Amino acid sequence: MAVVEIPNRARAWALACAVFVVAAVAQRLYWIAGGRWGYTACDRTDLVDPAGGCGADQVVVLPFWSGWGAVGVGVALAVVLGCTVRFAGTWATAGSWAAAALLLVVAFPLHLVFEIPAALAGRPSDWRDLGARLVLVAGGVLFAGLANASGPRRGPAVVGYRPVPLWTRRWAYVAVALPVVGWAVPHALWVLGVPIGISERELNDIERNLSTPTGVAITLVPPLAGLLVLGLVQRWGQQFPRWVPGLHGRQVPRRLAVIPAGVVALTLVTYGVLSIAVLVGRLLTGDTRWSQVWDGWAVTATLLVFLGWGVSLAVTTAGYALTTSTHAAMTASPGSERP
User: Fold this and answer.
1) What are the protein's UniProt keywords (predicted)?
2) What's the mean per-residue pLDDT of the chain?
């Protein structure tokens, strides 16, 4: 592979990525050395103290992926960064895109969509975990910016509005309907005290642990976020609407729509597949009984909702990307574009 200097526009992104990698590795080495600032054990202890990391100071031996495993990932990110800077080109840029996708998937933005509104509404939350996830999101954005800036310049962008195919619209409507029917409706019923699809014990846990503002936030945020999918099939997803100051009528950057939608779709599919795999494994080992699955069928169904939501969003994103691609604009007939 020939040595090619990255464009000037990518140097600031490369420096920011380097700062992120060095800081992340330094923090993990600090934890390995015995420090616990910023560390949380709420996902692996029975202590109920989210503000204090659930007894993080009492953890003697770090789990592998919190310590040396994370250091290894940091070294791999440093190698990707070095290749992108040293060998600017298609393959090096692909490595940066892969690093961005990895960081964003590990951050699991869907968790942030649920937990941040609940925390702001007053629910006790593990701010160390939320902070770490936000840092991972920032790292993913930095590597995506580096990949975008160091990649080859392409032809002229699509100008104007180009209608998406009918199949893209249908998948978009599915992506909007699933979080409403499969998430908002059952959660609203549970918050109201209706035990549909869950046991009385689970309903009592919800009533005991969720305040009204928290329950409303958890119920409404996912479907409201899902409405953004409509931007992939409407004019305002390609051209900024009139009510946006300073940008009305201008073209929406294609990657501004494709990258976040693609990352969320990948996250939803990953979560759905892994959750279903865990459930199947527990059924095979006998840790979970089929009677429990039937009693809590609504909870189990949410796993399929996440998977279907991710697949429908991915297909919609692909349709948007194909419609707004430069190649599609060049091959379209002169009279095919609507005003």
Assistant:
1) Membrane, Transmembrane, Transmembrane helix
2) 80
